[in-house]
């Protein structure tokens, strides 16, 4: 009976596992692109951190009003964005970089404009814009890292899926608001 193409012998598995253990968190040939990838990750880290802070602000500012359901969703999004920032910071450390935690550093990395809306509808529209910018940033990162850094690629793809869900939810919430 022929061997299944999906089953490998134990020696092959041991050799492959040892090779993975000896490699760094990134692909061995990634060193040349490491600085660019760390720069992209720090931009994403800053964006997520600042978005989490904005969502917390909106959550607290609008809680208890006639827009309480959306305010509650802002609280949940703040937690998710902070989780994304934490994952990105961990990946930066895994790649032997340093996440930019200083206030000036975060602001210098920030890719979105400050949201200063006068009405709740305007605020939700601005949040939609920020989500779309973030989605575009993550798509660009995925295009760049593709085969260069599989770990970063998989992490950013997972975050992108959540950001796309956020944009869809915000679009539905915007439709439900009075004009």
Architecture blueprint of SSEs:
Blueprint: H1 10-22, H2 34-62, H3 68-94, H4 103-109, H5 120-145, H6 150-176
Helix pairs in contact: 2-3, 2-4, 2-5, 3-6, 5-6
Relevant terms:
72% helix; 179 residues; 6 helices; Ferritin; 0% strand; mainly alpha; single chain
Structural write-up:
By secondary structure, the chain is mostly helical. It has a single domain (33-176), classed as Up-down Bundle (Ferritin). The chain has helices at residues 10-22, 34-62, 68-94, 103-109, 120-145, 150-176. The longest helix has 29 residues, at 34-62.
Arithmetic mean pLDDT: 79
Strand content: under 5%
CATH architecture classification: Up-down Bundle
| Radius of gyration, taken over Cα atoms and rounded to an integer in Å | 20 Å
Helix content: over 70%
Q: CATH topology, what is it called?
A: Ferritin
Give the H and E element order: HHHHHH
Number of helices: 6
CATH superfamily: Ferritin, core subunit, four-helix bundle
CATH C-level class is: Mainly Alpha
Question: Quick one: overall form?
Answer: elongated
Sheet having the most strands: none
| Total individual domains | 1
Entry summary:
The protein is mainly alpha-helical and 179 residues long.
């Amino acid at each position: 009976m022929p061997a299944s193409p999906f089953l490998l012998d134990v020696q092959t598995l041991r050799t492959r596992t040892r090779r993975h253990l000896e490699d760094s968190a990134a692909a061995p040939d990634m060193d040349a692109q490491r600085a660019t990838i760390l720069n992209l990750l720090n931009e994403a880290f800053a964006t997520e951190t600042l978005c989490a802070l904005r969502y917390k602000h909106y959550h607290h500012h609008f809680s208890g009003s006639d827009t309480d359901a959306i305010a509650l969703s802002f609280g949940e999004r703040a937690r998710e964005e902070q989780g994304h920032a934490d994952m990105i910071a961990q990946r930066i450390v895994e790649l032997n970089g340093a996440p930019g935690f200083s206030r000036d550093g975060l602001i210098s990395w920030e890719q979105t404009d400050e949201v200063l809306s006068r009405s709740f509808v305007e605020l939700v529209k601005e949040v939609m814009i920020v989500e779309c910018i973030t989605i575009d940033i993550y798509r660009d990162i995925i295009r760049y890292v593709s085969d260069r850094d599989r770990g970063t690629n998989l992490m950013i793809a997972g975050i992108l899926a959540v950001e796309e869900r956020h944009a869809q939810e915000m679009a539905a919430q915007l439709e439900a608001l009075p004009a």
